[in-house]
Amino acid sequence: MKTPALALALVTGLAAALPAAAQFQKPEDATKYRQSTMFVMANHFGRIGAMVNNRAPYDAAAATANAELVVTMSRLHPTGFVEGTAGTQKGQANAAIWTKRAEFDTGMKAMQDEVGKLLTASRANNLDTLKAAFGEAAKACKACHDKFRNQ
Ligand code: ASC
Known about the structure:
By secondary structure, this protein is an all-alpha fold. It has helices spanning 4-12, 27-52, 60-76, 96-99, 101-122, 127-148. Helix 2 packs antiparallel against helix 3, helix 3 packs antiparallel against helix 5 (101-122) and helix 5 (101-122) runs antiparallel to helix 6 (127-148).
């Protein structure tokens, strides 16, 4: 623990209220963080995708377990988008995120809502219900990727 103030902030849960930049030791860590949360999310979203696309057997309990992780990752995504960390390569976050931050935040929230619905749908024990919710969640992912990720 570096300072008593930081220790106090952590103990009282105030760390979450610090500016995002202050939570990373260096800008590259914010990039790594968001790439990590995206990677884990895509992996678990993809496992549900395999079920709805008949590439894996439908397993309702596994769908829910994966959807829970997708929801958890979706909550972490916003944290990694620290100003000044736009990328230049294909697939990286582009500068529009910070010039159109309100639009980005709205898209992020829409995705979080859709993956929340995916989790609810996963509990219905019905592959068609899961399939429909998966499609809507995928659309929400794609909407931001089309606008805010280097093509
Ligand atoms: C995925 C994944 C995404 C989204 C997107 C939806 O499985 O990794 O980024 O779905 O492709 O169109």
